[in-house]
Amino acid sequence: MKKILVITVIVNSILSNGQLLPSYGGERAGQSAFTFLKNDLNVRSAGMAGASVALPGDPYSAAQNPAGLASLNYSSFSMSHLQLGGGIKQLGFFAVIPNEKKVSSWGIVINRIQSPSYSERTEFRPEGTGYKLYSSQTSAGLAYSKQLTEQFQLGVTLKSIGESYTTGSQSGSYSSISAAADVGFLYTTDINNLRFAVLLRNFGTSSSLKGTYQAVSFNRTNIQGLESNTLPTEFSMGLSLIPWERENKSLRISTQLVHPNDNAENYRIGAEFFASKDFAIRMGYRINELGQSWPVGGLGWEIKLGGYAMHFDFAVQRTDRMGWRNTIGLAFIPKRKKS
């Protein structure tokens, strides 16, 4: 009888769009600046619903947990592209340079989001003033990761973040600049490639726009100061393991808890199945995240060209209100060494 009662409560909660998990912190949504830093430019991670903090290192690791870079014994150059709504595009560039003598790696991370131009309008010129408005946000960082013991890896990324809102007349603009750091560690065990990870992302100073430009001076007061906003800091914990493996086929399961400072906690689970050594199928799901009620998926494959290799990755995500989000990535490995 108790089992029937529990099942009934769960079914009714789902059918009524009830929430079994608490959403403490949801009232803080929209209070942070530079929210583009939360978008996932790691294509492998995007195909696994972002459950990537405990994944082993790959060419995109600097976009998530920099600790994973220390396990890479090859250089790589990669790019990713995220298509958002309204013609907004986000690009990522990543470079990894290993230092085998010190069992460490350096990384370069560039993240940029750009909006298309749109007309400047005022109450006196609702059809447009003839000028165009532009907005962009950019983050550039340097990552360093070191393997301290056979199981323990530590990584840090220091980055500068800036944004700019300008007019086509170049007569005024608003801009801001800030700094942040990502700090993470990764611990690997001997049991089914079980890995634990902890990550603190986007920890840094608050940001405030600076500028005084006004398209119309009539009935306006001088701008005294603009509001200061925090960065979208996230604290994450996760684990991953390989419960099944046969020859060149394997299945990896990854889970992650994310605690953001500007929203409710959310939980992520992802799976990566290698059908062969060079082809992977990915799926994932986010729990307790508003607007993300659909599962996500992705593909990844590697093409070898002599001693070189090319990685192609693709991820697709269906959102409740913002349509489809597609992420494409390309990684080039100049000369991959045998592990």
Task: Explain what this protein looks like in three dimensions.
- This protein has a 14-stranded antiparallel β-barrel. Strands 9-10 form a two-stranded antiparallel sheet.
- Helix content is 5%, strand content 50%.
- With 339 residues, the chain is mainly beta.
- The chain contains two helices and 17 strands.
Please outline the helices and strands.
Blueprint: H1 2-15, H2 43-46, E1 76-83, E2 89-99, E3 104-114, E4 118-119, E5 132-147, E6 152-167, E7 173-188, E8 195-204, E9 207-208, E10 228-229, E11 234-246, E12 249-260, E13 266-276, E14 279-287, E15 296-305, E16 308-318, E17 324-333
Antiparallel strand pairs: 1-2, 1-17, 2-3, 3-5, 4-5, 5-6, 6-7, 7-8, 8-11, 9-10, 11-12, 12-13, 13-14, 14-15, 15-16, 16-17
Specify the CATH homologous superfamily: Outer membrane protein transport protein (OMPP1/FadL/TodX)
> CATH class, please?
Mainly Beta
Sketch the topology as an H/E string, one letter per element. Answer: HHEEEEEEEEEEEEEEEEE
Mean residue pLDDT: 88
CATH topology: Porin
Please report the number of helical segments.
Answer: 2
Strand content: over 45%
Uncertain runs:
2-19
Instruction: Give the strand line-up of the largest sheet.
Output: 1-2-3-5-6-7-8-11-12-13-14-15-16-17
Tell me the domain tally: 1
| Radius of gyration of CA atoms, rounded to a whole number | 22 Å
Given helix and strand content, the structural type is: mainly beta
Summed up, what is this model?
The protein has 339 residues and is mainly β.
